[in-house]
Structure formats: structure tokens, C-alpha cells
Batch of 2 targets.
Target 1
Amino acid sequence: MNVSPPGKGEIHVEGLISMLSENMQKALNGQLVAELYSAYLYLAMAAYFDAAGLPGFANWMRVQAQEELTHGMRFYNFVNERDGRVVLGPIEGPPTGWDSPAAAFEHVLAHERKVTGLIQELVKLAAEEMDRATSDFLQWFVKEQVEEEESAEGVLRKVKGAGAELAALEGELAARVFKPPAAPS
């Protein structure tokens, strides 16, 4: 097997044909970077909450960061399984501070809604390209984003309801444990 670099950021493997179109591969790589950015964002929020003396809130964000890393790895693995080429782009630095815990969770909800839009765009591209395998792969993420938004909305409601009495939520948020998602069926 002959391996040669035909251009910047690409590797050509003689005799190997990707089952992904160039557009789909680029879009999936972009989503991989978006998932890694999400992990980076939630880790920045964990640091913010640690500095604010809210370790339970920080725990919730660390668990969220772990989830996002597993999402990124799903994209990484899928591109490879389809004989595509994973190309990692730069990850922008996230914000490092928020005006309040409520503002941080408002940012979480807005961010998850943005990710939902990105997933919907991938679903649309897969349909346009009649790429059934990618469409099927993305359905797990469609369902996951419903859960992500619901979770963010729920915690935001509790944070707003607690007002200055955030200590009441500390135990609940500290109890969150990372559970690797089940493999898609």
C-alpha cells in the first residue's frame, strides 16, 4: 500500500476510497472540533465554579465535559470507520468567567441549542447526499441533543429558583456521575 501526502492536511492512501464525500468528511471533522470545543467550554465553566467555591457545580460541568469528549470520539471513530480522514482543526479558547451561576447555565443552554443546530445541518447534508450510513449515525446525536437541552433547562430553572441559596443545589450537582453512553443500536 502506497501512502503519500497529496496536499496540506490530506493523506492519500493508494487503493483506499473513502465512503464519505469530501463535503461530508469536512462537515464531520468540523463537528468533531465543535464537540471538543464543548468539552473545553465546560471545563472552563468547571474552573469558574471551582474558583467560586461551588464544587458541586464544578462537578456537573466536569461530567458534561467528559460527555462532550465521548461525543467527539464518536465522530472521530465514525470518520475512520468510513475510511475517511480525521483532520483536527484549531479549538478556540472559551470564555473564562460569567456574571453569575445562572449566567453560566444560560450559556450552557444557548450552547446546546447551537450544537443542536449544527447536528441538524449535518442531518440535512446527509439527506441531500443520500448518505444513509451517516444519517443513521447522526440519529443518536439528534436524540442526545434533546436530552442535553432538557438537562440544561432543568438545571437553569433550579439555579434561578434557588437565587442566592445555591448551597441547596450543591449536593445534587455534586452527585452527578459520568456514565459513558451506550453504544448506538
Note: The longest strand covers residues 3-4.
Target 2
Amino acid sequence: MMENMHSDRFSRSASLISRAWSSSAVRYLAVGGFSFLFDVFVLWLLHEVFLVPLTISTPVAFLTSFAVTYTLQRTVAFRATDGVAPSVVKYAILVGVNTVATTAIVWAADALGLPWIVGKVAAVVTTTIWNYFAYRYWVFAARKVVD
């Protein structure tokens, strides 16, 4: 009887996780969370350990995470099957916009006397919102085939 109860609980939990994981938004946030930690680690390493100024370390860390983030968002979050080239070009354009925005927000936080991590979190929140829609409807959108 106890074994059945644990099995039912496990089954319900697995079903709930499976349903949640079927959502591109949930996968996007999970991949984004991992990518954020990777980006912040590189930024911390460059700025705090190697003493690289924020105006250099912020875009370097952000751009370093480019390959990791692109690959995981494409394959895991949006399960894109179209050709890589068109989405890489669109992604690169978006990365350019995000790099400028992220650098400006981190710099502004620092200029205001706030810890750089406050600016980094503010930049991530801002870019996370517009990136989801850009990824879903532009970067990784399935091409419509016209007969």
C-alpha cells in the first residue's frame, strides 16, 4: 500500500513536470536561468578576479555566453528544426541590441553607486521579457510554407 502511494505521487510529479516542460516559456526560462549564471560567472571572473573594467568585462561576458545561449535556446527551449543560418543572423542582431542595452544598464547602475550585480539583474529582467517574444516569433519561428 505504501509503495503504491509513493508510486502515485511520483507519477503525478513526473506528469506535472512533463506538462510544464512542454511549454516553450518554461524551457526558455530554465535555459535562460542557466545562461544567466554562466554569464554572471564570466562577468564576475573578469571584473572581480582579473580587474577588467565593467565597460569591457560586461560585453565580453555577455558575448562569451552567445554560443551557449543560442545553442540551448534553439535546441531545448524552442526545438527549432529550420536551418541554422537564418536564425544565427537574427540572433546576432538581437545579441547586438542586447549587448548595448546590457552594457548601458550595468554602467548606469554602477554610475549610480549601486553594485554592478544590481544592474546585471535589471538588464536580464528587461532583456528576458523582450527576448522571449523575439525568439518565439522572429529568431526561431518556424517558416511558413506556401503551396
Note: The chain has one domain: 24-139.
